[in-house]
Amino acid sequence: MTPQDVAQWFRIEERPAEMLLTGCAGLGLLCKQNGRYCNTPLAEKFLVRAGHYYFGGFVNMLNRRLYSGWDKLPEALRTNRPTTWDADKQRSLFEGADPAMMQTFLQAMHSLSIFTARALGEAVDFTTFRKLLDVGGGSGAFDIEALPAISESFRHGLRPAVRDGDRRAKSRGGRSGRPYHDPIRRFLRRPEVSAPRCNPALHDHA
To answer: The pTM is what?
Structure first.
């Protein structure tokens, strides 16, 4: 794209458009050829949304949730309160969070997990396993990247809640019954060889 193309696309003046392109080129994200700018291999690999190793999810998370908190550091120190969510309405960042924020968080964690998963796949031979139990698997980054040889993936949700039927039983005075870990136990009792993997975030529910 040329500076004129960028100015028209973002509906800005040509001068700031050219400054933006020059800055991105200086960072190694763009290269200039015959007056036009294009992605460098680095940007093509990590900053194209459709790319396998797209890292923009984590950058968006930093921009939307973390940088603003550091901007308000003096306020946080004076008040001893969080600045990126309403402590009067939420006990944490995730309680009652809007779907858009949770989607941003999930994309950020996927951006990080995909590289950890690749390293795991390079270090461990999973070809002898047929099934994967991915507890707290999130976006499925480990299933996608580290374990393509496993024929069946069985991911299980992060929160150890009880099923609706068991909630109804408890409300009637009966026993709460089976939490979600029962399907996991049944899976691990199967005769086929299986490979369990637990998300480190599960320590929050221990």
So the answer is: 0.62
